Amino acid sequence: MTGGLYTDLYELTMLQSYLDHGKDKNAVFSLYVRDLGPERNFLVACGLETMIDAVLSYSFSRKDIAYLRSLNRFSEKFLGALENYRFSGDIYAVPEGRVLFGDEPIVQVEGSLPVCQVVETLILNIIHHQTLIASKAVRCVTASGGRPVIDFGLRRAHSLESGLFGARATYIAGFAGTSNLQAGAAFRIPVYGTMAHSYILSFPDEEEAFRAYIHSFPDKPVLLIDTYDTIAAAHLVVRLVREGLAVAAVRIDSGDIPALVREVRAILDSENLSEIRILVSGGVFEHDIDQWISGGVPIDTFAVGTCIITASDQPYLEMAYKLVEYDGEPKVKFSPGKVTFPYMRQIVRRYRDGVMDHDEVVRWGTGTDGECLVEPVVRDGQLIRSHPTLEEIHERVVCDLARMPRYLKSLSKGDYPVLLG
Amino acid sequence: MTGGLYTDLYELTMLQSYLDHGKDKNAVFSLYVRDLGPERNFLVACGLETMIDAVLSYSFSRKDIAYLRSLNRFSEKFLGALENYRFSGDIYAVPEGRVLFGDEPIVQVEGSLPVCQVVETLILNIIHHQTLIASKAVRCVTASGGRPVIDFGLRRAHSLESGLFGARATYIAGFAGTSNLQAGAAFRIPVYGTMAHSYILSFPDEEEAFRAYIHSFPDKPVLLIDTYDTIAAAHLVVRLVREGLAVAAVRIDSGDIPALVREVRAILDSENLSEIRILVSGGVFEHDIDQWISGGVPIDTFAVGTCIITASDQPYLEMAYKLVEYDGEPKVKFSPGKVTFPYMRQIVRRYRDGVMDHDEVVRWGTGTDGECLVEPVVRDGQLIRSHPTLEEIHERVVCDLARMPRYLKSLSKGDYPVLLG
């Protein structure tokens, strides 16, 4: 169950006032990103299944009610109504994994005004976070040109939960796996990892450390080779392999990465050890990957952490959850710089020669002869289809990337046409 | 209990290898920030109590062990040992709320190597997140010159948990409260909030919305006045107050904030309504606050969200958890650009005329005639003092800010001298 207190106070003050004034007519709220910002060409919709589970289990325990009573702000009538709160509305959404743009509704919620209002914070928090991370991670995937990318971000994620759902988002975006065991257990994401510098340092020397690790994990371990002298460590790896010990890969976490990788690759290749792969980590982000891959640096696998799990170049999206219809009337906020489009919307995607050409955001029920992205997923508080697997969600990313024009996939800024009808 | 899977896989592969090779001698790990980065002059240590609770309850359930067994990587001997894992080491730390700098150990952990290694990810995640947010939030507090600052960040925090502990960090830094009810309930932080634009939009017009809200909350509500026309709404507020209705404050969330605030203030003052306060929200960050306060814009309260809860200008710290001693030997990693100082350390702070002059980071047990910041907090896996209250922790921030040289408190970059002995 998701505790009812995971919300902002104002959701509940508004609710009490809605109740006082009988304002329980049908409302439609739309969740969308206003502007993709300077660094993103597209979004990967993410977090929907997590959000649905949270919304459908959102409720107030007696302890929650007791806390709210202690604030001396709410009526007993209202607190009694809260105790019976269950989400009873409809949710329309773009399926997780689909590619999206600014001004396009990711999630739309319809139902009685208070029922849809109170889950605003919950819906925003979950969809914002996972869409943010998936939309960042997919850039590493496109930049790496098919080479595996792994999430090492847990330690710098903004909370343990941020690391957990961040790992989910990176896997949907196309990462090969994560170092995060909780994510491995919760979502069956493949897990990766070997050793830290502290492991190497705890032995008298690097050779003893490598031998000890191979002894513990004889089935092709990955050895961290940059603790003292990366090149000397590469020669040591060669010596150990010549003795018959197995090494799957070496990891380089610091220093002049392109130069070290080339030199280590040359050392390994000159000894006919081309099957030993090179994994690079340590503050890597998508522009590094892009630059190194285009420069022909022979890296096999990328482990990325901080920059991806915090979306450090753009750590938030301009995402909003706006009332767009109430009691059949269109609703629009006119404040400067912030415009809301009224009514429930459909997104229609048009292709030219199999390539995405433009999207049209149209009023629900009109002009839907193209590909329609928005689907009903919850009706009257009930999920109307089962959750897809993460692999199925990831397949949607793959399909959309395959049909996306090249300029959008590049790390340079490009704008896809979205027509607002 | 904190589940054992909230860690990186490599912590456990290292652990199995330590067990295989009898490597359980005494180790010291040091958690510190390498470099404060371009935007921070100091850190506010934060997250210690949360981290201690997590470390002391860190354990592996049968379900955790079953998942680890399914990875086909671990020996039964090792999994059996994990089932009995409890943290049995010592923790030395700078108390939460103290001001700190780069290269200074925030937390030091001493004990058997595997016991201290396995909690690396957990300790880093928790201390990094809360220290990051407290160190960002304190900049709003110093910039606001005593005016209340409130956290409205939950919706854009990187997970619900990030919003919860982020609110804790902002309150320690000096925020007056939060909109986050879970944080209010969990940490007894004062909660704030009134209405969203959707509330106003759900009524036929603004006047009806204001009247309805005041009817529900007659005890001096805050009214959101920027949904349609901020100036017209200010005149409407005047009219309602003249009728005898109570209004505590107005909130402006968009538009040209300084111009609107001045104009609204003038309207209210000309009607002798100087007691009605003006609250500003909507993408506010510390440089806005600084600029508006120095420009004399008559804002009474700031509500900040996204920029603070994501530390958006610098969403991570270069924080590391490094082995600095094993079995009595100093440990240092020599990779270029990353240097670790060996041994357990004390931080000695020197004052001149009551103002912080410089810090010395010295080997534990030497030269401690000044103010020593590092204290033992856990011994043999047992907490050796009770947790302070958040108000006590916040008092430490207040004391340190009062003794801090002015150049550090400014939003311009300044470097405090830290001498490494």
Short description:
The structure is a homodimer of 421-residue chains. Chain A is 38% helix and 21% strand.
Tell me what the structure shows.
- The structure is a homodimer of 421-residue chains.
- Chain A has 421 residues and is an alpha/beta fold.
- Helix content of chain A is 38%, strand content 21%.
- Chain A has 16 helices and 21 strands.
- Chain A has helices at residues 9-20, 48-56, 62-70, 76-83, 113-117, 120-143, 160-173, 181-187, 197-201, 206-216, 230-242, 257-270, 286-294, 306-309, 390-402, 406-409, and strands spanning 2-3, 26-33, 43-44, 58-59, 90-93, 99-100, 105-112, 149-151, 177-178, 222-224, 249-252, 277-280, 301-304, 319-326, 329-330, 345-352, 355-363, 371-372, 375-379, 382-383, 418-420.
- In chain A, helix 6 packs across helix 7.
- Chain A starts with a strand and ends with a strand.
From the structure above, extract its key features.
homodimer, 421 residues, alpha/beta, nicotinate phosphoribosyltransferase, TIM Barrel, 2 domains, 7-stranded antiparallel β-sheet, 6-stranded parallel β-sheet, 16 helices, 21 strands, elongated
